[in-house]
Amino acid sequence: MMQTGTVLELTVDRETPLGYMLTDGEETILLHKNEATRDLGEDETVEVFLYADQKSRITATMTIPKGLNGHEWMEVVEVLPGLGTFINIGIAKDALIPADDLPVFEEIWPQVGDHLLCRIKTDRRGKLIGKLATQDVMLDRSINAPSNILNQNIQGTIYRLLKVGSYMISNEGYVGFIHNSERKDEPRLGQVVEGRVIDVKDDGTINVSLLPRKQEAMDEDAQVIMDYLELRGGAMPYSDKSAPEDIKEQFNISKAAFKRAMGKLLKQGLIRQSEGWTYKKEEEK
């Protein structure tokens, strides 16, 4: 019996205006001309992949989809809230990664254009399903990071999300972990991120921080403060004396980082502080 998700060798029974009728001796199936990679002759044997088309009819293609014999990187081509994400597997039919296999919160689902490492299978209804690579698969595919990359910048793709942090696979093939304290926002599944290596572990994996280096952070935080002052008309009810929780709530930075940025702005003569308020110098009357 012909089943979706399988690769079979079938024989060309006859040609039709739409394509070729293939047979295994008992059943016949259509190979549309759009799914044939070359012209075929009667009685010729051809290897095809079977899948269900948009109308749930079993059809054939001479293109073997990606991810059928192992994990491959697939591009996300559509995201449907509540249902899941569709990935391009190289044939006319895309495969679905069901919502149950994605993060609980849809804001950290992959976006169109992201890439995920997946393999392909069929569900009980014969639909093509994408299965994300597990941690074991990623570790098996990875290579050990050299110790001399400590403190270097690195780029990679997020492939696993946990409450405690996120896992990435670098462009070089290193498995990296990003603790939730080493990022400002949680990256989405499939997002390409750039950080710096803060530890190379004995097992060859790395720890990565997405936070900027102190000087870079100071520049960024100082700009955030100046932008906020601009929105407030040049004055804000925050200063070095403000409570840490108030600073965190408004600027999403620690009090220490806030004080460093404020110190830089004071030194540059861009601001002044008075009675718990901060003012842009150019706003003075």
Summarize the structure.
It is built from 4 helices and 18 strands. With 285 residues, the protein is of the alpha+beta class.
What does this structure look like?
The protein is an alpha+beta fold and 285 residues long. It has four domains: 7-61, Nucleic acid-binding proteins (OB fold (Dihydrolipoamide Acetyltransferase, E2P)), CATH 2.40.50; 72-133, Nucleic acid-binding proteins (OB fold (Dihydrolipoamide Acetyltransferase, E2P)), CATH 2.40.50.140; 137-209, Beta Barrel (OB fold (Dihydrolipoamide Acetyltransferase, E2P)), CATH 2.40.50; 214-283, Orthogonal Bundle (Arc Repressor Mutant, subunit A), CATH 1.10.10. Helix content is 16%, strand content 37%. The protein contains four helices and 18 strands. It has helices spanning 135-141, 214-231, 244-251, 255-267; strands spanning 7-15, 19-23, 28-32, 45-52, 58-61, 72-80, 84-88, 95-98, 115-122, 128-132, 153-161, 165-170, 175-179, 192-200, 206-209, 235-236, 271-274, 277-280. It has a five-stranded antiparallel beta sheet, with no helix packed on it. The protein has a five-stranded antiparallel beta sheet with strand order 8-7-6-9-10, with no helix packed on it. The protein has a five-stranded mixed barrel with strand order 11-12-13-15-14. Helix 2 (214-231) crosses helix 4. The longest helix has 18 residues, at 214-231. The N and C termini lie far apart (87 Å).
